[in-house]
Design goal:
single chain, alpha+beta, Rossmann fold, Dna Ligase, domain 1, D-amino Acid Aminotransferase, Chain A, domain 1, four-stranded parallel β-sheet, 10 helices, disordered C terminus
């Protein structure tokens, strides 16, 4: 197969590993900077152009879309879909998971465990909002934040009010969630491919930091999942419609609660901690699930 990895940077660990894994299995791999793609949106011959040339012979795309570039990145993925190209994750599923509020609402609809979460627009409603999630301490999150940026632990009622008022003064949209104290700065990342958990790791936050993101100095190690945790991760990925996903959850007193579902999960931490060749598993999934006769041929023929 001819596989395009949609990534801004060919030197990133995840991008390099996917390229290496695909080439090792005999596929023609190419890294495409999706921000440099432009599109011809027509019904008779839709096309994606890169470096002035049409990308006509792509069988599969693997989106590695940065959170800050979701709008344009998903537009490129969607254009490939219009052309009949199989995508490791569909554009709609990526958009669904990137909208934190929508993601949580869909997970709640499907009965998946979540921290108690509140959302409001007006600062006049702060008191009711805090009461709805059980009061301080609470975690306040920017909807647009990634990698632990824009996440604040407010330990008192007054601190929570001050932080919420400051964010709203900047017209920033925020979520307010109960603080899962018993998690003790540890979360679980499950890597789901095709409805199966293929690898998992435990992430411990840096000393003095309740956030466990590896980008913020957290440490990763192997972990044994419970059947409920495994089931929760699979259901969360399915709820988003993601074929490839990183599902982050905490161990709470009332079972696993999902914090986030990531459509472009990094490979470095999970491969190092679990010892699993996740990149190869992604390529093998594509081998089994990409249609043999690409519908793009019928569109362009």
């Amino acid at each position: 197969m001819k596989i395009a990895i949609l990534s801004q940077d060919a030197s990133l660990y995840s991008t390099k590993r996917l390229k290496e894994a695909g080439e090792a299995l005999g596929h023609e791999m190419r890294v495409i900077n999706y921000l440099r793609c432009y599109m011809n949106i027509t019904s008779h011959k839709p096309a994606v152009f890169y470096n002035g040339q049409p990308l006509e012979s792509v069988d599969v795309v693997i989106p590695r879309i940065a959170a800050s570039k979701t709008f344009y990145g998903t537009a490129v993925v969607r254009q490939f879909e219009v052309m009949g190209v199989f995508s490791a994750n569909e554009s709609q599923a990526i958009s669904r998971s990137r909208d934190k509020l929508r993601c949580l609402q869909l997970l709640a609809r499907d009965g998946i465990g979540l921290p108690v979460t509140g959302f409001a627009h007006a600062t006049q409603d702060i008191e009711g909002l805090l009461e709805s999630v059980g009061g301080a301490p609470v975690v306040i999150k920017l909807l647009e934040g990634t990698q632990g940026i824009g996440v604040v632990l407010a330990e008192t009622h007054q601190a929570a009010k001050s932080v919420i008022e400051a964010f709203r003064q900047l017209d920033a949209n925020i979520l307010v969630q109960e603080f899962i104290k018993e998690a003790a700065g540890v979360d679980i990342r499950c890597f789901v491919i095709g409805g199966k958990v293929v690898a998992a790791m435990k992430r411990q936050g840096a000393e003095g930091d309740f956030r466990s993101n590896l980008h913020r100095g957290g440490q990763a190690s192997t972990i044994k999942l419970t059947p409920e945790e495994r089931s929760t991760a699979i259901r969360a990925a399915k709820s988003m419609g993601l074929r490839v996903a990183g599902v982050d959850m905490l161990r709470s007193n009332h079972g696993p609660v999902v914090m986030e579902v990531n459509s472009s999960p990094g490979l470095e931490g999970i491969e190092a901690a679990s010892g699993v060749d996740v990149a190869t598993k992604i390529i093998e999934f594509l081998e089994k699930n990409a249609p043999l006769e690409n519908t793009r041929d019928r569109i362009q023929g």
